[in-house]
Design goal:
single chain, about 450 residues, alpha+beta, eight-stranded mixed beta sheet, three-stranded antiparallel beta sheet, 14 helices, 19 strands, about 20% strand, elongated
């Protein structure tokens, strides 16, 4: 039985953070912050098992060169402007020879400014490339570790049902009740693209509608967004260049199939200035998601455990920096209630530095226990990115004092369907069929699959 609670259900997430102080200008990987807090940034990235000192020194060197080039360019342009005014005065005074000499000097300054502009663009591009390669700095509460084996379990809820000896894993149940056809999907496209049929298709649609209704009832505004994004959008939320090899790329149009609704939904606010009283922004969206999942093989990815195309409902928040960790608490609590409504045993993990996503400062993973497989399956990640994405997106808010500052962004799965379906089929199977949780029956129109 999974009734042990590691920490308090309500508010324990904040309790574990209360010893750390946060200010409005939280850690951002920008040169000024790196220059002023070099050792702190190195130590923070060390939690990810990254020796960032050499890369950060390159960053600072490029930034110094950029600033020096900008200063020289500004000075050169100022001289050129001053000479241009002087030439005009000389012509008015009839000093043609002196004016001609000044025109030669002006031409030389223009050539110099062009060279400086080209150099500035090149150095700025190099600096940006280095910045794009550096991940977010983990929150102080993130445990050290190398892999998912070092993640910290912080909460468990629910009871594992006792199944009889004839209990089946979800891929066998899907075949028995004609819910999912993996072979047909492989025929049409390839492995990892299942076809849902009959009550399996209805269950998918029911889950999507139920998740969206659950989210909108909690104050998340529903949006419908494109399923392809441009490179700028991928860079803005941090999927590019980090996950480029895992994203499907439409080369002719230079567009990417989205790996999660987080990308288009968060980019709705790229290059935006939000008024402080408009915060928080709370959005939810359903989209199919596409992931190459290159190198994923073995029995642990069988059936619905890992797919190249799957459905997911996402929640996204844009928050005031001082309130983003309270917002993270709310989102974790929200996802927990959603899982509880499905009568699924679950646990919450705080991810260690080695398992933390590229853009996240702090992430909580939700895992559902798969009874027939006797293993935990990840069904949701809820993350606070602090100002990391906002810095890339140029997403700011204007305070009541008139100052413009970077907002904080957060997102979470609420929920990813494949492993939820796997958990529902396996945990709710009985001798007479698969029983549908009461919360879902109004959406499915049936209470049992048999």
């Amino acid at each position: 039985r999974l009734t042990r609670t590691v920490g308090k259900r309500q508010g324990f997430y904040s309790d574990c953070l209360q010893n750390f102080t946060f200010v409005k200008n939280t850690i951002m990987l920008i040169p000024a912050h790196v220059r002023e807090h070099f050792d702190q940034v190195v130590a923070g990235l060390q939690k990810r098992n990254i020796d960032a000192a050499p890369q950060l020194k390159v960053l600072l060197s490029l930034d110094e060169e950029r600033r020096a080039t900008q200063a020289t360019l500004d000075q050169t342009l100022a001289q050129a402007n001053a000479i241009a005014k002087e030439i005009g005065q000389l012509f008015k005074q009839g000093a043609g020879e002196e004016a001609a000499a000044k025109k030669q000097e002006s031409a030389a300054l223009k050539d110099s400014s062009k060279e400086l502009q080209d150099k500035l663009q090149e150095v700025s591009s190099q600096l940006q490339e280095v910045l794009y390669q550096l991940p977010n700095i983990p929150h102080p509460s993130v445990p050290s570790g190398n892999s998912d084996e070092d993640n910290e379990e912080v909460f468990q809820k629910g009871s594992i049902p006792s199944l009889d000896d004839n209990a089946l894993p979800h891929w066998e149940l899907a075949k028995k009740y004609k819910l999912i056809d993996f072979e047909l999907g492989a025929k049409i496209t390839g492995a990892g693209f299942p076809v849902y049929t009959g009550k399996g298709a209805k269950l998918q649609r029911a889950l999507i509608n139920y998740f969206l209704d659950f989210n909108t009832a909690a104050g998340y505004g529903e949006v419908q967004v494109p399923h392809l994004v441009n490179e700028v959008s991928g860079l803005g939320t941090g999927q590019l260049p980090d996950k480029e090899g895992q994203m499907y790329h439409v080369t002719e149009d230079d567009l990417y199939l989205i790996p999660t609704a987080e990308v288009p939904v968060t980019n709705l606010y790229r290059d935006s200035l939000i008024q402080e009283d408009e915060l928080p922004v709370k959005l939810t969206a359903y989209t199919p998601c596409f992931r190459r999942e290159a190198g994923s093989y073995g029995t642990h990815v069988r059936g619905l455990n890992r797919l190249h195309q799957f459905d997911k409902v996402e929640v996204v928040r844009i928050s005031h920096p001082e309130q983003s960790y309270a917002a993270l608490d709310e989102m974790v609590d929200h996802v927990g209630k959603l899982l509880s409504s499905l009568d699924l045993p679950y646990r919450i993990l705080r991810l260690c530095g080695g398992d933390l996503g590229f853009t996240a400062a702090l992430t909580y993973d939700f895992e559902v226990f798969s009874t027939a497989q006797n293993r935990w399956l990840e069904v949701s990640s809820v993350s606070n990115f602090e100002s990391f994405q906002a810095n890339r997106l140029k997403l700011r808010y204007k305070g009541k004092d008139g100052k413009k500052q970077l907002a904080h962004t957060l997102n979470g799965s609420a929920l990813a369907l494949p492993r939820i379906v796997a958990g529902l089929l396996e945990n709710h199977q009985k001798s007479d069929g698969i029983h549908i949780p009461k919360a879902l029956v109004p959406y499915t129109g049936f209470d049992i699959i048999n």
